[in-house]
Amino acid sequence: MSKVTLNGLTKRFGKVEAVKNVTLKIRDGEFVALLGPSGCGKTTILRCIAGLEKPDEGDIYIGDKMVTRLSPPDRNVSMVFQSYALYPHMTAFDNIAFPLWIRKRPRDEIREKVKKTAEILEISEFLNRKPGELSGGQCQRVALGRAIIRNPAVFLLDEPLANLDAKLRISARGELKRLQKQLGATMIFVTHDQVEAMTMAERIAVMNNGVIEQFGSTDEIYQQPANMFVSGFIGTPAMNLIKCSLVERGGSISLILDTNTLPVPDSIGRALIEKIKSSDMVFGIRPEDISIHEKNKPNSYKTKVYVVEPLGNEKLVTVEMGNTYSKVRTRLDFKQEIGENAWVDFDWNRAYFFDKRTGKVIMHGLNKSANRR
Amino acid sequence: MVIIRRFILYFILIIFALFMLFPIYSMVTTAFKTMPEIVGSRLTPPTQLYLGAFKEAFDSIGRPLLNSVIITVPSALIGTFLGSITGYVFSKFRFWGSDALFILIVLGMYIPAQAVLLPVVKFSANVGIFNTYLGLILPMIAFSIPSATLFFRNFYMNVPTEMIESARVDGCGIPGIYRRIILPLSGITFAVSVMINFTWIWNSFLWGLVLTQGPAVQPVMVAVNNLHGTYVAMWNVQMAGSLMAALPMVVIYAYFGKYITRGVLAQRK
Ligand SMILES: Nc1ncnc2c1ncn2[C@@H]1O[C@H](COP(=O)(O)OP(=O)(O)OP(=O)(O)O)[C@@H](O)[C@H]1O
Ligand SMILES: [Mg+2]
């Protein structure tokens, strides 16, 4: 097991810059997710680490060894492809044994190790079948088996659970996490499913457009998003982002949303004023940090119900605030229907403020001094 | 309406079929007739099965038949094998000049034999392989590489690249991947390519004609052409010889054709 370091990694495909100057330090034995929307360069990073793509700039270290110019067989990594890439003419046994077979290990050792690997993954019964005769979940485990049968410095997994059905995916999530702990392995996996990333990984690298927007634990990414992209990507539904400007009138501070005024608690307003350069900003608040009421309450803000989505144990209400729409998570007994009025108020301690131009976080309510400028 | 249209269609098809089948009929019937019988009536079926023409033909083309086997089998196999290696490399690896090299190889398909006839003969004589088996086998292999390369490259394009990359990451070298993954996956393609090569090499008349002298190495197609008598045209002997020369191809297609159809269907599944 080894740490993995990317240093200023850049990869271009013709004019497309798939990965832009990415620096990432992954610890020994860490379970890391590369999370981001389609086409943001996750697979490209993984392939660069495996040696399947040559970076245009930057260096890659596995352990303390620079591997940038080594070919894939010399890097001692294991990779599970999204398609699993099993060999169709070999049985599950031979597929799993393949890496040892290449290394000309003795037969007894191979048989022993395949047996053990199959036990860990609970696929002992299927070892004589070929990939064509296995289900998606079984194929996935055979592919994992082929990766874990030797002791590579690092495991790379490209959307390992994407081909599984929803139910199987949830159980596979837990299994994979346990497996990683059991092996104590450095694992990097790619996903565009934030729940997968948040539930499995110790740290998540949130990617967008070839850059890493933030690298941190689930809590950090959720509680302290570095910028608008991260806050808008994480959470189901994601944080509401509302364009507004800050004004001070007669000693009280408010946010102006379109034509409406939203008073801000003094402590937060003061702290904000000290930090901003321009009054234009983006106000962010998660759906669970807004309360919604059927009747007017002091300090609440009048809105119109746009749509109501019952989720079984709660309701998701979209409200119209001026020209913007915000999602609110609320109790099941919330009564108002589409078109009716509703009043919302915000948990200001959980509000975020972003620089409209750079998208970076200026401040968030919980930790009034926290910012990354 | 439909029936009439069908009728017309089948009528036309039958005419074409007869057009193709008649020479075969003529060849088979003539081969079993005696010369006087042929002179008597050209198109009627033979009255008895006369095998003398076959015996006579075999006396002159027995050795060339063996020559053809000795030349064709290794050429077809080696040409296919080399084509599958180049096809694999060109489908899965890019290196400096790979595109240009591929185009150069494929261009080889469009070079007419007549254009390189003299240089090949001259070269063959210079290196001392004129009128030897090797002297025919080597050019046959060379000429089968371009089409085999293209054929295998197109097939390997459909083999998922991730499978090869996975093997690379697992520590397998490029030759190892060919041996352990690519080759085992190409069974049917291999058989088809061997058949295609076998066909044209077996039937190749021109190269046998210019690269050999006399029956010792001469392939059967050239020998058959020499069967016409010096003073009288021995039609029955010629036809019997042609039949014997064509027989291996017929047998191969009858046998492997079925196997290939089955294989292709199995692959589609
Ligand atoms: N071989 C290639 N040639 C040209 N462009 C490529 C190639 N591979 C990737 N790209 C481009 O690079 C960018 C990043 O691709 P990449 O496959 O890394 O995305 P991804 O984050 O893995 O997306 P997904 O979630 O859809 O798998 C994309 O814009 C893609 O079109
Ligand atoms: Mg991808």
Describe the structure.
The complex is a heterodimer of chains A (373) and B (269). Chain A folds into 2 domains: 4-227, 3-Layer(aba) Sandwich (Rossmann fold), CATH 3.40.50; 237-364, OB fold (Dihydrolipoamide Acetyltransferase, E2P), CATH 2.40.50.140. Helices cover 25% and strands 34% of the residues of chain A. Chain A is built from 9 helices and 21 strands. Chain A has helices spanning 42-50, 92-102, 107-121, 136-148, 166-183, 194-200, 218-223, 228-233, 266-275; strands at residues 4-13, 16-26, 31-35, 57-62, 65-66, 77-80, 154-158, 187-191, 203-208, 211-216, 240-249, 252-257, 260-263, 280-285, 290-293, 301-310, 315-321, 324-330, 341-346, 352-355, 361-364. In chain A, strands 6-7-8-3-9-10 form a 6-stranded mixed β-sheet, with helices on both faces. A 6-stranded antiparallel β-sheet of chain A has the order 13-12-11-14-20-21. In chain A, a hairpin with a 2-residue loop joins strand 9 (203-208) and strand 10. In chain A, helix 2 packs across helix 3 (107-121), helix 2 runs parallel beside helix 4 and helix 3 crosses helix 4. Mean pLDDT of chain A is 91; it is low at 368-373. Chain B has 12 helices and no strands. The mean pLDDT of chain B is 88. In chain B, helix 3 (52-92) packs across helix 6, helix 6 (133-157) packs antiparallel against helix 9 (187-203) and helix 9 packs antiparallel against helix 12. The A-B interface holds A 50-52, 71-73, 75, 77-79, 81-83, 85-89, 98-99, 102-103, 146 and B 160, 162-163, 165-173, 176, 180-181, 184-185. Bound molecules: adenosine-5'-triphosphate and magnesium ion (MG). Adenosine-5'-triphosphate (ATP) is lined by residues 13, 16, 18, 36, 38-44, 192 of chain A. Magnesium ion (MG) is lined by residues 42-43, 190 of chain A.
